[in-house]
Amino acid sequence: MKLAVYGKGGIGKSTISCNLSIALARRGQKVLQIGCDPKHDSTFTLTSFLIPTIIDTLQTKDYHYEDVWPEDVIYKGYNGVSCVEAGGPPAGAGCGGYVVGETVKLLKELNAFYEYDIILFDVLGDVVCGGFAAPLNYADYCLIVTDNGFDALFAANRIVASVREKSRSHSLRLAGLVGNRTTQRDLIDKYVEHCPMPILEVLPLIEDVRVSRVKGQTIFELAEFNTEFNDVCDFYLNIADQLLSTPEGVVPKELMDRELFSLLSDFYLNSKETESTDSHSTEFLML
């Protein structure tokens, strides 16, 4: 299975990707995580350091693929998860999609691309061009990470459009949404009501998850020394179990931008009016 993880920039994709990779490995899968961000920090919590990128390695070899060995680009992370960082072009130059393509090309040259049960692409930021959507060309499923806010759902809707477009050429499906770092899910539910898709899990706002990335460790690693983290690990194991059940997935139809704006803003304002009315009613009853 090849899985592409997308979502708004800063939404927590890399944290979810790393912990999900471990969850899949705990379920007996041989996992390769490919970071597709020029920051090359996707696999940081798995390896505890910034591993060399594919592009950096190819540059040192003058782009002679035959001189590159698997150990030059594939690093073992926590729980046996294999890690690759695609890297990227210099800021303001080149195309991230080209880098992803070169990464897959090299892994195929090394006979590594098809050796894994799971290949997880952790993709940078919002989809704004065909280059950023390149990992969808190699994926069986897309997983979208969002929170309960408008900006993240707007980005999710754009990703939905990319999934629909890419599904025309191959059997790509949307596995579903993962809500992250949110104490509420009313906007998520409203969006899914109008753009039907599965919600695989909604993770609450947990400070320890954010701190784990600063420490360079995954939640699963922290759980070895503190059993209080086991409940958090269960969120990721639940997502892994749903993915391993080979879900049918969906080819969703995105909402038009104005339709999405209207839907979420009207719902938010109506919710606030209801809260205000309930508050006044409560005050009246107390009098």
TrEMBL record:
Main localization, broad class: plastid
Sequence positions that bind ATP: 10-15, 39, 180-181
Cofactor stoichiometry and binding remark: Binds 1 [4Fe-4S] cluster per dimer.
Gene Ontology CC: one annotated term: chloroplast
Gene Ontology terms describing biological process: light-independent chlorophyll biosynthetic process; photosynthesis, dark reaction
Catalytic activity line of the entry: chlorophyllide a + oxidized 2[4Fe-4S]-[ferredoxin] + 2 ADP + 2 phosphate = protochlorophyllide a + reduced 2[4Fe-4S]-[ferredoxin] + 2 ATP + 2 H2O
Positions contributing to [4Fe-4S] cluster binding: 95, 129
Localisation per UniProt entry: Plastid, Chloroplast
GO molecular function annotations of the record: 4 iron, 4 sulfur cluster binding; ATP binding; metal ion binding; oxidoreductase activity, acting on iron-sulfur proteins as donors; oxidoreductase activity, acting on the CH-CH group of donors, iron-sulfur protein as acceptor
Binding site for Mg(2+): 14
InterPro entries referenced in this protein's UniProt entry, alphabetically: NifH/chlL_CS (IPR030655), NifH/frxC (IPR000392), P-loop_NTPase (IPR027417), Protochlorophyllide_ATP-bd (IPR005971)
ATP-binding as UniProt keyword: yes
EC category: oxidoreductase
Needed co-factor(s): [4Fe-4S] cluster
PROSITE patterns: NIFH_FRXC_1 (PS00746), NIFH_FRXC_2 (PS00692), NIFH_FRXC_3 (PS51026)
SUPFAM superfamilies: P-loop containing nucleoside triphosphate hydrolases
Pathway: Porphyrin-containing compound metabolism; chlorophyll biosynthesis (light-independent)
Domain of life of the native organism: Eukaryota
Keywords: 4Fe-4S, ATP-binding, Chlorophyll biosynthesis, Chloroplast, Iron, Iron-sulfur, Magnesium, Metal-binding, Nucleotide-binding, Oxidoreductase, Photosynthesis, Plastid
HAMAP family: ChlL_BchL (MF_00355)
Function: Component of the dark-operative protochlorophyllide reductase (DPOR) that uses Mg-ATP and reduced ferredoxin to reduce ring D of protochlorophyllide (Pchlide) to form chlorophyllide a (Chlide). This reaction is light-independent. The L component serves as a unique electron donor to the NB-component of the complex, and binds Mg-ATP.
Complex formation: Homodimer. Protochlorophyllide reductase is composed of three subunits; ChlL, ChlN and ChlB.
Family designation: Belongs to the NifH/BchL/ChlL family.
NCBIfam families: DPOR_bchL
Protein name stated in the entry: Light-independent protochlorophyllide reductase iron-sulfur ATP-binding protein
Species of the source: Rhipiliopsis peltata
